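user: At home tonight, take the chain set out below, taking as long as you need, and be ready to discuss the fold:
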Amino acid sequence: MEPLTIENARVFDGTGLTPPRPVHIDRGRIVADPVRGARTIDAGAGALLPGLIDTHLHVQARAALESCGHWGVTTALDMATPRPRETLSLRHRDGLTDLFSAGYPAVAPGSGPITAMGYPDHIAVPGPEAAEAFVASRARDGVDYLKILVEPAGPAGMSAFTPETVTALVRSAHSHGLKAIAHATSAAAYQMAVEAGTDVVTHVPLEAVISADLARRVLVTSPTLVMMRGIQTAVGSRLPLDYENARLSVRRLHEAGATVLAGTDANGDPSAPFSPPYGEAMHQELRLLVDAGLSPVEALRAATVRPAEVFGLADRGVIAVGRRADFLLTDDDPTTDIRATTRIRHVWSGGIQLR
């Protein structure tokens, strides 16, 4: 891992781009001073962004992380896998997008993941009395957080957890030092997730706009708009689903003060209604967040500093001395035109150049 100086970079500092300046890297970290013998790259006044953090995807193979890295996504938060041994083994490898994972998700007996997505029967949580044993097992697996599928019972529901079971899972997660992340694609599920005290709610409803009262109670959301739009396109003609409800829900959540994170739900699951492409979908998500009311700077923060803060990733998310050397260098200014994030010249993960 050679030392490096990136000259003439306009650095995204969370509010805009700085005047051109050098950034020095040594042993995978940003350092204050140039290192003797360092290789030099001239950024040519391009925009140097912190590596993007996808807060919701599903990873089962190395190729997914390689695709993420190509598109400047240098941190990937896997939000459940039917094969945790394989997924967890891909975490924290040099020269690859840095991976975190929930392992097995908390699901109800007979729910969609078990009946249609390849998850084993034994992970089902039948009621609140089984919550602690499930969470303790995930903690022994060494997961990074807990994923809970929160949906009302019914043919279209992913699970049929009672509010008491969701609350018990959240409390057990917190007692083990794990954040609780809720899957919720309906207003009723959002309500249940908020009342149970989950730390992050992922997705947004397609069947209706979240109420203003509920929006004010949501602290953190990863709406995965690219996935919601894909679902509406794939199955909306057969169900009363409308992407505009998702877009307006994000606008309402943002205006109410919720922390909005960028996540794509990228996956390679043939049973999924839609599979956003790894890495590339993050740039689509950023554009959709801007369309939903975030400014380009806010959208960039949703993919960098905000997820680092929410998930306790204190070593990344900003370009500062001591942080990981996770960057993407773009030719144009994404703080004024979010589409510029796709015009990537180089990508580094932990100081190793990926592109």
About this structure: The chain has two domains: 4-48+316-353, 51-310.
